[in-house]
Amino acid sequence: MTDVNKRSSPVPPSPEFRPADGLPLLAEAFPQTFFTDPKQVRPLKINIHHDLHARFQAHTLPAEIDPGGIKRLLRWYTQRTAYLKALARGDSRVDLTGADVDPEIPEAIREQARQALARRQGLKTSPAGFRKTAPANPAAGLLPRLAAAFPQTFFADPRQVKPLKVFLYRDLLRLETAGALPAEMDRTALKAFLRWYGKRTAYLNAVARGLGRIDLTGAVVTTGIPDNLRQQARAEVQRRQANRAVQTATTAATATSPTPTPVPIPYALEDLYAMAVDAKLEVTLKFTTVPNARPTGQGRMAFALKIPDGQLITTEVSTKAWNKLLKAAQDWPSWTAALSGTMEARTDQGFTLANPGLQVFERKPKAPAAATDSPADAPAAVPAAVRPVDIAPVPAVAEPAEAGRAAPTPVAADPDPARRKPVLSLKHRQVTL
To answer: Which residues, 6 or more positions from 136, have their beta carbon under 8 angstroms from its beta carbon?
Structure first.
């Protein structure tokens, strides 16, 4: 009796239990349902974990497999490539006896399986670096099962996606508590799935169009979407499209441009690193147009600046500094503002500027150059300034030689007779030139 009570009570999954180790045990207990050979794998009956749990209560399961191990094993088994191939082919679902219980697989689930297989094949053929960075979202694996359980609510086709009812998670949680959901859909998995489903581009497009919200039966429970939510969804879709265009252009440029040959460095970088001193990185941005700003509370204004390489720099300044900028832009016809600060957290399109300092300078026009002579007067003035002067020798005056005195130096004659002046000799005698 004690053993029965222990067996019927919930048992936490053993950390040593691996799903791959439990597959041979289930394949031996149910040889027509579970297969170790990938070529023989077939889709399982929906909610087959209920049948396995009943077998566990009846003590007909291997002792190594408990309820927690059943959930982990089924989650692993249904995500294998062989199982996805069986779904894509549209093989009929089987129960624990191997009998067909669902001969047709919905096309939406088959298409989802094909997409998963194509994604895995792409990761295999892609470069190793891409495989390491490719994100894996296990929440996407629940979409085929939820689409099969609620075909009017969840859709694999992006064109059929509709906004979900607010707090739909509570309805799913009640079904999970009642055991009406597949085994792999626990609280944590449901939260992760709804978070992923609500961030899909197809879902954001549905919200932006203002489609009505639906419940688990597909009935519309809310006819309208608030305008602010629609604008947010539309802005997010546009941002994703812009990022996708940039990535496509970058990939094309990388594929077409030749790889530059690295230039050898004539010194060792380690030597420079060893000599490095502490420094503070500051950024200065200059702009001549008043940006649009929004109040953030506590006396501060937030705005953004765009630099030539496309990055967006966001910052917050005090209302006092912002008012000085507005007054300068109003009083001065030409001005330049300088915003300085340090780089802080990076954003998806740039970074944030911390500890900002805002200064505004007036730009005055340059003074005009001094007026010059008119072109008509210039030719006449130039020859007069450079006209050559004829130098005439001074007539010699016969004087007796006197010791200790030098001979007089000849004086150049003035070409203008009106300006001629008498010249005195050394003996105070007047000589007219």
So the answer is: none
Residue spans of the domains in the chain: they are: 1-136, 145-253, 281-362
Cβ neighbours of residue 200 under 8 Å, at least 6 residues apart? 158, 161
Superfamily of domain 145-253: ProQ/FinO domain (1.10.1710.10)
Dump pLDDT digits (tens) for 341-383: 888 777 878 888 888 888 988 888 776 655 544 444 444 444 4
State the CATH architecture for 1-136. Orthogonal Bundle (1.10)
Q: Which of 194, 215, 84, 186 is nearest to 140 (CA)?
A: 194
Type of residue numbered 215: D
Tell me: the pLDDT tens digits for 103-141? 788 888 888 888 888 888 876 765 554 444 444 566 777
Strand order in the sheet with 293-295: 283-287, 335-346, 350-362, 312-318, 300-306, 293-295
Could you name the CATH architecture of 281-362?
Beta Barrel (2.40)
